[in-house]
Design a protein that fits this description.
It is a single chain. The relative contact order is 0.08. The model has no long low-confidence stretch (mean pLDDT 89). The protein has helices at 3-36, 50-76, 83-104. The protein has two domains: 1-47; 50-104, no CATH class. The chain is mostly helical and 108 residues long.
Length: 108
Amino acid sequence: MDIEGIIAIIATFSTAFGIVYIVMSTRHRERMAMIQRGINPNEGSRTSDPEKSLKNGMQLIAVAVGLGCGYLLDIYTNIEQPWVYFGPVIFFVGLVMILFYFRFRKPV
């Protein structure tokens, strides 16, 4: 193995370790600050929001449908443009966001 490959592997793992360390130390500092203020750090954390979960699920389904439509466009047309995949994905995600808005908007 050449030296560039070894350096790339070391850089990748050290970057991943650095990111994990920063996230964990920041979380620890936040929790310690909450304890000093007299707030229980376990309250309110990890609450599930069914509407957010539904929105994320709808978006993932829209991405899958968009990629499927892009694949069909790629197969059945001779278009060699990248928007063949990106266009349907953006369209279906936008459509899902509009449907989600109308389904869960608060009445005035």
